[in-house]
Amino acid sequence: MHFEQVDVGEYRIYAGAIERPRQFGYVAAVVVMRERGMSPQVEAFRDENLASGYAWTSPAEALRFAVNAGRDAVLYRAGAAV
Question: What's the pLDDT tens digit per position in 14-57?
Fold first, then answer.
C-alpha cells in the first residue's frame, strides 16, 4: 500500500494506491475529511474503488488519480455550499 495526504482548504485528502491481490496493478482509493472548524472530523467523501477498480500500472499513477478525485469532491462540495 502507498499513501499520500494533501490539505485543500478545510479538507484533508487521504489517497491510497492498493496493490491488487493476485492481479497486476494498483487500485486508487480516496477518503476526504473535513478537518478545520469541525470537532470531531467529518468524512465528506469516500471511494475505495475509484474508476471501477481500474488497475493502474504504478502506485504513483493511482495516487495521482486518487488525489485528483479528492480535489474534485472538495470543489464540488465547496461549490454546493455557496
Answer: 999 999 888 899 999 999 999 877 678 889 999 999 999 999 99
Tell me: the pLDDT tens digits for 66-81?
A: 999 999 999 987 665 5
Please answer whether residues 16 and 63 qualify as being in contact, where contact means their C-beta atoms are separated by less than 8 angstroms.
yes
Question: In one letter, which amino acid is 38?
Answer: M
CA torsion sign for 58, 66, 15, 52 is negative
Q: What sign does the CA torsion over 74, 64, 14, 48 have? A: positive
DSSP 25: S
pTM assigned to the model: 0.86
Q: How far is CA 40 from CA 16, 36, 58, 73, in A?
A: 23, 10, 34, 20
